[in-house]
Amino acid sequence: MSDTATFEYKGKKIEFPVVEGTENEIGIDIKTLRASAGVITLDPGYKNTGSCESAITYLDGEKGILRYRGYAIEDLAEKANFLEVAYLLIFGELPNKEQLDKFHSDIKANSEVDEDVKKIVDSFPRTAHPMGVLSSLTSALTAFNPSCVDINSEEDMYNAIVKIMGKFPVLAAWTLRRRNSKPYDYGNASLGYVENMLYMMFKKPNEEYKLNPVVVDALDKLLILHADHEQNCSTSTVRIVGSSHAGLFASLSAGVSALWGPLHGGANQAVIEMLEGIKEDGGDTAKYMEKAKDKNDSFRLMGFGHRVYKNFDPRAKIIKKSADEVLGDLGVEDPVLSIAKGLEKQALEDDYFVKRKLYPNVDFYSGIIYRALGIPTEMFTVMFALGRLPGWIAQWREMRLKKEPIGRPRQIYVGENLRPFVEVSKR
Ligand code: ACO
């Protein structure tokens, strides 16, 4: 017989089934709590709430473990490329050569974006934040591809997936090109998926674009490391929007908006802005360490701490090595990076940070790499979105195939009780 957990309230005892995951994580299945006891659980921020059972990504924040479909992130970052990882996340298994080639050529065949989308891109101010533009453009794709995805048709699902995998990088690149006043480019079909991303973003109209293998490798790794992270804020957003049966593109557009925030994907931009601020203020890292610790000061050390990784972020370990390689290879000398190194060292030795287990997270280093690669700061979170795309798709697909119910949390109402309406003239 499987385990149960007993809940007692006002003398009434109720048994709830206990669910055990494949990595022995335990959850109490409280689906019937309200119906049987007339109460709900209260957990703002969902620190103790599992929203689903998922077979995509496993992470253990205490041990610093991250796996996609059972494969260690360290192996994937070292041995696979981003497109293989995307296939793995979405379809559950690593592709063989034939499957991978087909996936890539189907993505390429679907990468064309309607010419009229250019008019939408042109209508944004050049100063608009790229994440706002990307979210709008992703949503606009729904208008240009109105047919619904029949989730019972594998072919329909597959077509929607290769469409968005093809078009999303084009939209991201056009967002950058609009900002930089460069003509829109559809890329080069002879290039790899990641190589083509760089080409579409940085190719100058009258110049050949030369790919730097160090840059390609670093970007490939970064995209892999960001590809999924179980039920984080943007992924939960994608799942909850999709749970209303809104389409894939609309759900992804909401995911982009959720990722934008500085407490989530926007942290990589916030890291560089913080470092630049410290530099402009004279480069006194000790002063900023004190500000971060001062409870009367809202300043936080961006790029430090994580909701689930409480010992170290395994992605940060991998990418720190990559950051050192890229900076060495490209010969980058940048005072902002020296400030980053100073902060990193001080925080790792500081009692406040050590006690609270606040370590540099992946975004501390990803911002540094993007800067070294010449990617504008405001585009950092767009790069994150490019990496997270297959994870969002995989989670949306899983949620729809499992026919999960619409996401609709409850609340405890703490507002006014019923009161009489007062006419405007008497208020
Ligand atoms: N600088 C200073 N103090 C911090 C920081 C920080 N970056 N992060 C957490 N703390 C402190 C809090 O003030 C709190 O202190 P207290 O116990 O004395 O009250 C304690 O550490 C716990 O912090 P919480 O906010 O409760 O931790 P939570 O898990 O809710 O938040 C978060 C995690 C949002 C990532 C937080 O650490 C933070 O704001 N970090 C900076 C932003 C950042 O880098 N975000 C990127 C996350 S990674 C990603 O999205 C890919």
Automatic annotation (TrEMBL):
<dbReference type="InterPro" id="IPR036969">
    <property type="entry name" value="Citrate_synthase_sf"/>
</dbReference>
<keyword id="KW-0012">Acyltransferase</keyword>
<dbReference type="InterPro" id="IPR016142">
    <property type="entry name" value="Citrate_synth-like_lrg_a-sub"/>
</dbReference>
<dbReference type="InterPro" id="IPR010953">
    <property type="entry name" value="Citrate_synthase_typ-I"/>
</dbReference>
<dbReference type="InterPro" id="IPR019810">
    <property type="entry name" value="Citrate_synthase_AS"/>
</dbReference>
<protein>
    <recommendedName>
        <fullName>Citrate synthase</fullName>
    </recommendedName>
</protein>
<comment type="similarity">
    <text>Belongs to the citrate synthase family.</text>
</comment>
<keyword id="KW-0816">Tricarboxylic acid cycle</keyword>
<dbReference type="InterPro" id="IPR002020">
    <property type="entry name" value="Citrate_synthase"/>
</dbReference>
<dbReference type="GO" id="GO:0036440">
    <property type="term" value="F:citrate synthase activity"/>
</dbReference>
<dbReference type="Pfam" id="PF00285">
    <property type="entry name" value="Citrate_synt"/>
</dbReference>
<dbReference type="InterPro" id="IPR024176">
    <property type="entry name" value="Citrate_synthase_bac-typ"/>
</dbReference>
<keyword id="KW-0808">Transferase</keyword>
<comment type="pathway">
    <text>Carbohydrate metabolism; tricarboxylic acid cycle; isocitrate from oxaloacetate: step 1/2.</text>
</comment>
<dbReference type="InterPro" id="IPR016143">
    <property type="entry name" value="Citrate_synth-like_sm_a-sub"/>
</dbReference>
